[in-house]
Specification:
By secondary structure, the chain is an alpha/beta fold. 37% of the residues lie in helices and 22% in strands. The strands form three sheets. It has a seven-stranded mixed beta sheet. It has a six-stranded parallel beta sheet with strand order 3-2-1-4-5-6, with helices on both faces. A two-stranded antiparallel sheet has the order 13-14. A hairpin with a 3-residue loop joins strand 11 and strand 12. Bound molecules: NADP nicotinamide-adenine-dinucleotide phosphate (NAP).
Length: 332
């Protein structure tokens, strides 16, 4: 991999929610990077964004990936396009930051891992941004220090107030719980080996046919039991909670800092509306890390395609459990 002083990036899927979010950060707060080209399947959106950032509006994703003017690629397109686009970047020997999930099937993940292996260098970073969140990092430090003894179980909540009509029951796992899957592989430094999905009564706010909320249970190699309530129509706001129960104490993820407001007969703080407001530092740090890695300023790559693949394997077991109702083993 060449290490340019300033990395010229191309963004594929530039017109989406997170595409716009990353573009804004890349063009304002991330150091050592410039936007060279954008591509979105929607031509009009693509041209407008290219004009906004003074970038080339690529005619196809392949044109952007293969352009000699582009050093590295950010993939923010739909889930289903991730694996193919990432493999094309690897084939062009371009470092790629791919939003989670790396792929929607284990087979596609394995193909990306194989392609990177053949390329002989670490080219892929997956958008598991919670690893870069300062509060989760503190949790990992406390766990590592051993002061609370071994972790035994964890209780997590992932609630989002509304969801696109295209969201399916399986996407609760591959789009939502995937964050906790990666988080706990990283926090515990061990694999998750089995899992189960449970369905309570569904909210009347969910679209017809969507099971929402859902409860994920996952077990790590050493037997840590993790439960995750995943809700896509929580109505009241975006809420991420995480508490680890250890032998000698517990560790809880704090709510984001917010002023406590006392108004007539009330006292409280505002609840956020979406993911972009909840983890701004984590999104910034993950992109800065990726750019620094591409520039050769840090030697340790971020979460890579092995992590994307391992997370997908756990997700696959959970999705299997949605149909069988049983505890399913993770097969890599
Ligand atoms: P979105 O708003 O639907 O954006 C996807 C964009 O990509 C849309 O503009 C879409 O165009 C375009 N697109 C679809 N297929 C494409 C292709 N083959 N080539 C180029 N462009 C394509 O979705 P989003 O919420 O931004 O999410 C995008 C990805 O980011 C998802 O994989 C999601 O899992 C991930 N994500 C991650 C986080 C996180 O916390 N890390 C948060 C949010 C999203 P059209 O609209 O015209 O179809």
């Amino acid at each position: 991999m060449k290490h340019p002083k300033i990395v010229t990036v191309g963004v594929v899927g530039a017109g989406g929610f997170i595409g716009q979010y990353h573009l804004k950060r890349l063009s304002t707060v991330i150091e050592g990077v410039r936007i060279g080209a954008v591509y979105d399947i929607n031509r009009e959106k693509c041209d407008a964004i290219a004009a906004q950032y003074g970038a080339v509006s690529a005619a196809t994703a392949e044109e952007l990936i293969e352009s000699p003017d582009i050093d590295a690629v950010v993939v923010t397109a739909w889930n289903a396009a991730h694996a193919d686009l990432t493999r094309k970047c690897i084939a062009a020997h371009k470092p790629v930051f791919c939003e989670k999930p790396l792929a929607t099937t284990l087979e596609d993940c394995a193909a990306v891992v194989q392609a990177e292996k053949e390329a002989g260098e670490s080219l892929v970073q997956v958008g598991f941004m919670r690893r870069f969140d300062p509060d989760y990092r503190k949790i990992k430090e406390i766990l590592k220090s051993g002061e609370l003894g071994a972790p035994l179980m964890a209780h997590c909540v992932s609630r989002t107030p509304r969801i696109a009509p295209s969201h399916t029951t399986a996407m609760h796992v591959i789009n939502i719980v995937i964050h906790e899957i990666d988080l706990f592989r990283w926090l515990l430094d061990e694999e998750l080996v089995k899992g189960q999905m449970l369905f309570p009564r569904s909210t009347s706010l969910a679209a017809e046919g969507l099971a929402d909320p859902q409860l994920a249970l996952m077990w790590s190699e050493s037997g840590v039991l993790i439960d995750v309530e995943a809700a896509a129509n929580s109505y009241y706001g975006y809420d991420i909670q995480c508490e680890l129960v250890c032998e000698k104490g517990t560790i809880r993820l704090p709510d984001p800092a917010a002023p406590i407001v006392r108004s007539r007969l009330q006292c409280g703080f505002a609840i956020l509306d979406d993911w972009s407001q909840r983890f701004p530092t984590a999104y910034q740090m993950e992109l800065q890390h990726w750019v620094d890695y591409v520039r050769g300023r840090v030697s340790q790559p971020g979460p890579g395609c092995q992590d994307g693949c391992a997370a997908c394997a756990v997700a696959e077991a959970l999705i299997r459990s949605q149909t069988t109702g049983q505890v399913e083993s993770v097969t890599l």
